[in-house]
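tool_call: predict_structure(chain=1)
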Amino acid sequence: MFCQFHNKSLSNNDFNVVQYGYRDCVPGFNVYHRRCQNYLFHYVYKGKGTYTVGGKTYKVSQNQGFLSLPGQEMWYTADTSEPFSY
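tool_result:
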């Protein structure tokens, strides 16, 4: 399941949430982000997977998060036996 929301009101100059949502991933699901324009944060609320940024791959699991900075390329992949939901 995937659900996404967009915030069209950008009233704060310091911090604005532009998009938020959640996804229940299928085993092996992966995403590639090519140089996002904004900070991109994911919080894993169940399952596990991997996150790759800057040539390094990290394991992520329940109650952990991962962050991509503007301009960074990143990949993340849901585990094949316990896919994450974020």
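agent: The first strand starts at residue 2 and ends at 6. Proceeding to next step.
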